[in-house]
Amino acid sequence: MAVMTYREALNLALREEMRRDPDVFVIGEEVGLYEGAYKVTQGLLKEFGPKRIVDTPIAESGFTGVGIGAAMVGLRPVVEMMTFNFALLALDQIVNSAAKLNYMSGGQYNVPIVIRGPGGPAHQLAAQHSQSMEVYFYHVPGLKVVRPSTPMDAKGLLKSAIRDDNPVIFIESETLYNVKGEVSEDPDFLIPLGEAIVRREGTDVTVVAYMGMMYRAMEAAEELAKEGISVEIVDPRTLMPMDKDTIIGSVRKTHRAVVVEAGAGFAGMGSEIAAEITEDAFDDLDAPVERVTGAASPMPYARNLERAKTPTKEKIMEAVRKVCYANGGR
Amino acid sequence: MAKTMTQKAAPGLGLDADLAHKLLRDMILIRRFEEKAAEAYALGKIGGFLHLSIGEEAVAAGATSALRPDDYAISTYREHGHCLVKGSDPRRVMAELFGRIDGLSKGKGGSMHLFDKSTNFLGGHAIVGAHLPLAAGVGFAIKYRGGDQVIVCYFGDGAVPEGEFHEALNLAALWKLPVIWICENNRYAMGTSLERALAQTEIYKFGEAYRVPCEPVDGMDVLAVREAVSRAVDRARRDKTPTLLEARTYRFRGHSMRDPAGAVYRTKEEVEREKLRDPIALFRDRALKAGVISEDDAKKIEKDVSDLVDEAVTFAEASPEPALDELFTDIFKERG
Description:
heterodimer; A: 330 residues; Rossmann fold; five-stranded mixed β-sheet; 36% helix; B: alpha/beta
């Protein structure tokens, strides 16, 4: 174990997998000479050379397609999106090519590709650079979607994603790159895709949250403990496939659920998880499932408006009190 | 770098009987296969969209004849011909069109999504322009692994205004990837003529912009296609140079079976005039005159192909529909 940042954990995962498998290569804008817009690929060009750390021009659809084509014939590309917002330019490649080739070919051509980069709200990056992009991908059969909240998860899940034989959308966060935590230095350490984790045990209410929202939920849980409310926090980590068992198991124990997501709530991850809980654990619920979501607006630039758009600790606390019918709840 | 003259094959044909036989046979196979598919479509045995390449057979046959079996090919939704001449079993191609379990993709792909890993045929892509970056990626992988294979990427004139045409041509040129871009210019993107779609209608000239060898070629002349592709293959094998070829061809049928005549956007006279350039008739006549094929040979090819296609239909009809649990297989590849 070593303490390192989320960024360093990603970097280590890339290094280890590239050392392990010569078919793994990294491709994207500024990944080589510039060492990554967010320095996730720092030092990789020096260790692996330009054949395996491939700088591209600004052509998201083009270089994503290059990755998919290379994956069809057996390479294992890791495509970096400078920010996941730019993946919209490659959305057709991801949705119509990567996600469907194995199916359309009757299992002849699988696509072992990872498409990774930061997404979600950050610090005043405004409307075009702050979107919670997972919603565009987990709806598509054939894609796996990962949102790792901690340095340990960043490493273990990225390694699993690279070894997976299918397309994996791996969305990090600008706000988490400097977060520090314990990380396994074992090159064989993996976290399987599709396993949620209970971040905090509790008895009164289950809060499902990931990425920055998970940290806000942890802060909310600390304060709510002072009010006598015991919060259990479940971090799905992988959104597709979703570990329903862990979420439902927690709700069966606490009988109450709040789902938090940074993106605008309509037809979002919160809706999906709320529906799953309602379908599978309705009789266990003591209150309707509550969602805390981003406001249904584009991300504004102004600091106060950005804060108003995003789920805060206070909003999470309010939702928890509500499902607990506790003081201060609506 | 660009050659502005269409390359003509040598008058004596300069090819042996075996090759002449193969080229004629491949073109006739595509034509008869697609005619039979059209019949099956009319009878409701094939659903969805069915795009025929009748009139364009010389491109697939000529280009493929310049490849090794381990070279790759990737194509559009008008790909029956490219897939067949790359070596796929016509029975399995027909079964795919029929949506049956013995189809190349177990019936999950259909006419627009033919794939055959055993022949290095990479599909069957139905979003216009989207497979061009994939072709560049295959070229990237060939170079990454130090191989000397090439990939031929077929696309229509309709892909040229798409951004991905330009992204892919640029990347393949920038990184020197062994890709042979073959634009099958049949002059209409569905119902939109070249003149209504492109500011530069001489498509091969886009190769000049990306500083790659490029030339127009008579897409109705199977030998001209073969020679142009052979030159491109030589360059690609030698030093990974990509090439843009513009094969000038024509589709005798409509865009799809739902556009049977194709008469709204082009005149009957134009279609009839183009049919005088029928690549099969032209090549058969030349091969007969050059003495590399006899009348009896030609008849035998017709007979053999006709039997093969009939057998393909029989096979497809006898093949079961996929079991319902196939709905959920192949969404993800499971670790074997």
